UniProtKB/TrEMBL annotation:
Cellular compartments annotated: Cell inner membrane
Organism: Marinobacter halodurans
Similarity-based family: Belongs to the LpxH family.
Positions bound to substrate: 79-80, 122, 160, 164, 167, 195
CDD domains cross-referenced by the UniProt entry: MPP_YbbF-LpxH
Essential cofactor(s): Mn(2+)
UniProt keyword terms in alphabetical order: Cell inner membrane, Cell membrane, Hydrolase, Lipid A biosynthesis, Lipid biosynthesis, Lipid metabolism, Manganese, Membrane, Metal-binding
The protein's name in its UniProt record: UDP-2,3-diacylglucosamine hydrolase
C-alpha cells in the first residue's frame, strides 16, 4: 500500500522517450500502488479537451487501464496544461484537484501544489498567470477554433522560452517566504510540489515547528517520483530512462 506523486513530464509528440518511460512506469510501478497523483505539466501543452491527438488518446487509454485496475488517479493543473478539463479526467477515470489542495497522507496533512504560484519574485509571470487562470479568459479562449488556439499556444511557448532566457536563476525558483506563508495558511508541516525542475528535499520551519518541502523532478533523462506509505516517510526517487 503506497501512494505515488509525479509531475513535469511535459509529454509531447516529439519526445517518444518520455511517453515510453511513462507507459513503463505505469506498468512497472504505478499499477501496484493505491493512488497516483500527477501534479501538473503532465502535458507540454493543452488547448482544450476537444483536441484529440494520438498522444493524448494513447495516454488516456493507459490511464484508464490503471484506474480500471483500481488505482486512484488525481490530476492537478500545471502552467502548461491548465486547460485539461473534466471531460479528459472522466475519460481517464481521474479526479481533478485544485491547486493548492491539502490531503491526508496516512495521517499527515500534506499540501499539494504545482509550484508556479510559489515563484512570486517573477512578478511579470504572476500577472500573466492570473490572466490565464481567469475563468472568463479561459471560456473565451476555448470558444475559438482549434487552429487559432494552436497558434496562440505556439506563440506562448516561444514567448516563455524567450522570457526565461533573460531571467536570473533565482527568479525562477520558489520564494522561501511564500513557501512558509502557504504552509502556515494551511497549517501543514509537509508540502509536495513540482514546476521548478529542482528536485530536492528541503528542511525548513513553519508554524514554529520543523517542516519539509519535497520538490519533484522533471522527466528529461530520468523518471522522478515520490513514494509514501503508511509506515514509509515520503522518499524522492529517480531512475534513468530505459
Ligand atoms: C510563462 C510567460 C508563458 C511572461 C498555453 C496552450 C493555452 C501552452 C500554453 C505555454 C507557455 C504558458 C502556457 C509562460 C511565462 C509566458 C508568456 C509570457 C510574461 C496554452 C499551450 F492556454 F493558450 F492554450 N502555455 N506557458 N510570459 O511557459 O507558463 O513571463 S509558460
Ligand atoms: Mn510548471
Amino acid at each position: 500500500m503506497t501512494t505515488f506523486f509525479i509531475s513535469d513530464l511535459h509529454l509531447e509528440e516529439s519526445r517518444r522517450d518520455i511517453t515510453d518511460a511513462f507507459l513503463h512506469f505505469l506498468k512497472d510501478k504505478a499499477a501496484h500502488t493505491e493512488a497516483l497523483y500527477i501534479l501538473g505539466d503532465f502535458f507540454e501543452a493543452w488547448i482544450g479537451d476537444d483536441e484529440h491527438t494520438p498522444l493524448q488518446d494513447e495516454i488516456a487509454t493507459a490511464l484508464k487501464s490503471l484506474t480500471d485496475a483500481g488505482v486512484t488517479l488525481y490530476l492537478m493543473h500545471g502552467n502548461r496544461d491548465f486547460l485539461i478539463g473534466e471531460d479528459y479526467c472522466d475519460r481517464v477515470g481521474g479526479t481533478l484537484l485544485d491547486d493548492p489542495t491539502v490531503v491526508d497522507l496516512y495521517g499527515t496533512p500534506t499540501l499539494l501544489m504545482h509550484g508556479d504560484s510559489l515563484c512570486t519574485a517573477d512578478v511579470e509571470y504572476q500577472k500573466f498567470r492570473a490572466n490565464m487562470r481567469n475563468p472568463q479568459w479561459q471560456a473565451m479562449f476555448l470558444k475559438r477554433p482549434l487552429a487559432d488556439r494552436q497558434l496562440v499556444a505556439r506563440q506562448l511557448r516561444e514567448m516563455s522560452m524567450a522570457k526565461n532566457q533573460g531571467k536570473q536563476e533565482d527568479i525562477m525558483d520558489v520564494t522561501k517566504d511564500e513557501v512558509v506563508r502557504v504552509m502556515e495558511e494551511h497549517g501543514v508541516q509537509r508540502l509536495i510540489h513540482g514546476h521548478t525542475h529542482r528536485p530536492a528535499v528541503h528542511d525548513l520551519e513553519a508554524n514554529g515547528e520543523p517542516a519539509q518541502r519535497f520538490v519533484l523532478g522533471d522527466w528529461d533523462t530520468h523518471v522522478w517520483w515520490i513514494e509514501v506509505g503508511p509506515e514509509q516517510a515520503p522518499e524522492l526517487k529517480k531512475e534513468a530512462f530505459r
